[in-house]
Structures are given as structure tokens and as C-alpha cells.
């Protein structure tokens, strides 16, 4: 009997405690923080693509062009840690009309350029030395973590300001935060005004010269916050 009374007593206390928690007045709001930054570096994905009837010759031509590209990059005095081969491929392609195999060789190099004043020179040189495809150009900031921290703080400030606006007409005050959830998306640096380059085919004879208009990038943070009302 005593055991049953003890169990009932614990259940009653648990239910009372749960009800007490549920009855705590609170407000839940979202906040967004946004920091606009002028990029100070750029990542370039550049590819050499070579086609032909003989696999060995196609690979050799592709390798020779990439060697020339790497020599040019070294002359640009880039840090060796700032460029690397991203992928290499040699694939057969069957021509059903001619009933024979052709071969397609590609090499892609990823370059991190930390001095944007060298951008035009680098892009022109890459094309001149054999690059015939620019796969991607991404402008970014070297101080990303610093700006992400600023964006998070701004998001929290906006959330609190929203909560204060809502309860200001109720004669209540915003108290301490009960829960905080980070809803930020993974940051993928993209320029705003820059004309984003999709995969672009170029030839040595008509190689376009890129112009630079980096604009700004947005670094954003989003939070959900529940505040106690006093």
C-alpha cells in the first residue's frame, strides 16, 4: 500500500512539475543577421580538355598543355599550397556513325588567388597556355569566420528586438533565453554583381579577356530563440 502511495505521489509531483513548466510565459521568434563583404580572394576551377583518335597521343597532348599552365602559374609567384590538380580523366567515346573510338582527356586545376589585382593577368595567361574551359569562379573572403561571428550576433540582436516589439504592447518584458537554435545554411560563397561563369568553352584564337566586377557577398546567420516573459 505504501509503495502504491509513493508511486502515485511521484506521478502527481511529475505531472505538477510538467504543468508548471508548460505554464511559463514565453515567446519564440526568429532572427537574421547579414554581413555584406567585399571579397579579397577568388577560387578558380580551370580545365584542359583534349580529344583525339589515339589514347596515348591525347593524354600526351593534355599533359604537355598542363605542364605549360603550371609553369605559367609558377611565374605568377603563387604559393604552391594555393593550387592543386582537382581531377584527371581519360575516357573512350564511341562514334556510332564512324564505328570507332575517340578519346577525351581532361585535367582540372583548382587555383586560390589571394591578390585580386592579378586576376586578369592570371585568367588571360591560363587561356593562352592551353586552358579551354573555365568551370567555376568563386569570390570569397579570407576572414569568413570573423564575419560569420558578426552575422550570428546580429541575428541574436534582431531576435531580441522582435520579441521586445511584440510584448511592448502587453506591459511585459523579455527575460532570459530558454532555447536557441541555429538555422543557418552552409555558407557557399557567391558574388552578387559578378556575372557568374557557367562552364565556358573558349579557344586560343578567340580567347575572351575577363573583366573583374566582384561586388559584394552576403554572409548570413539565422536563429530561432525562445525568451521567458517577465
UniProtKB/TrEMBL annotation:
Signal peptide as annotated in the record: 1-18
Keyword tags: Signal
Transmembrane regions: none
Domain of life: Bacteria
InterPro entries found in the cross-reference section: 26kDa_periplasmic_antigen (IPR052022), SIMPL/DUF541 (IPR007497)
One GO biological process term: DNA damage response
PANTHER family assigned: PERIPLASMIC IMMUNOGENIC PROTEIN, SLR1258 PROTEIN
UniProt protein name: DUF541 domain-containing protein
Gene source species: Flavobacterium gawalongense
Amino acid at each position: 500500500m505504501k509503495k502504491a502511495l509513493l508511486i502515485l505521489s511521484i506521478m502527481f509531483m511529475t505531472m505538477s512539475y510538467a504543468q508548471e513548466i508548460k505554464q511559463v510565459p514565453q515567446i519564440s521568434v526568429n532572427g537574421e543577421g547579414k554581413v555584406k563583404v567585399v571579397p579579397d580572394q577568388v577560387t578558380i576551377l580551370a580545365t584542359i580538355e583534349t580529344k583525339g583518335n589515339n589514347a596515348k597521343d591525347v593524354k600526351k597532348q593534355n599533359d604537355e598543355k598542363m605542364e605549360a599552365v603550371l609553369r605559367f602559374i609558377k611565374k605568377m609567384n603563387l604559393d604552391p599550397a594555393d593550387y592543386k590538380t582537382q581531377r584527371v580523366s581519360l575516357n573512350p567515346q564511341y562514334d556510332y556513325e564512324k564505328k570507332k573510338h575517340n578519346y577525351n582527356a581532361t585535367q582540372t586545376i583548382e587555383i586560390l588567388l589571394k591578390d585580386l589585382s592579378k586576376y586578369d593577368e592570371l585568367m588571360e595567361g591560363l587561356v593562352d597556355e592551353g586552358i579551354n574551359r573555365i568551370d567555376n569562379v568563386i569570390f570569397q573572403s579570407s576572414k569568413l569566420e570573423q564575419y560569420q561571428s558578426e552575422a550570428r550576433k546580429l541575428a541574436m540582436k534582431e531576435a531580441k528586438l522582435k520579441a521586445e516589439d511584440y510584448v511592448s504592447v502587453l506591459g511585459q518584458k523579455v527575460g532570459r533565453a530558454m532555447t536557441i537554435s541555429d538555422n543557418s545554411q552552409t555558407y557557399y560563397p557567391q558574388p552578387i554583381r559578378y556575372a557568374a561563369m557557367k562552364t565556358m568553352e573558349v579557344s586560343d584564337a578567340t580567347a575572351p579577356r575577363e573583366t573583374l566586377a566582384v561586388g559584394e557577398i552576403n554572409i548570413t546567420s539565422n536563429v530561432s530563440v525562445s525568451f521567458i516573459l517577465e
